[in-house]
Design brief:
Blueprint lengths: L13 E9 L6 H14 L2 E6 L2 E20 L5 E13 L1
Antiparallel strand pairs: 1-4, 2-3, 3-4
Length: about 90
């Protein structure tokens, strides 16, 4: 006999997206990266708001962050970077 499946409830939602950080747009990439790293290390949970609209009903936690440094100036200042965030719904 085959096992019967059972619906135990919906799983947690997840989302992955890229963020471009560029000093030409008034952002300090290195400071922004440090702030996000701090949130990851603390397990901070927040609502995800994109374009002024809240995504989902619940708060989210960052489960993974990767970074790519694209442009570094001669003095070592980070001019532009790309970060990829993976978030999971937090209940």
């Amino acid at each position: 006999k085959k096992p019967q499946s059972e619906f135990l409830g919906a799983g947690l939602s997840g989302v992955t997206f890229d963020i471009a950080l560029n000093a030409q747009h008034g952002v300090r990439p290195r400071n922004t990266i440090k702030a996000i790293e701090k949130a990851v290390e603390k397990g901070q949970v927040e609502y995800l708001v994109i374009g002024g609209a809240k995504v989902g009903k619940n708060k989210w936690k960052i489960t993974q962050m990767t970074e790519s440094w694209n442009t570094i100036m001669s003095g070592g200042e980070l001019q532009s970077a790309m970060i990829t965030l993976t978030l999971e719904e937090y209940l």
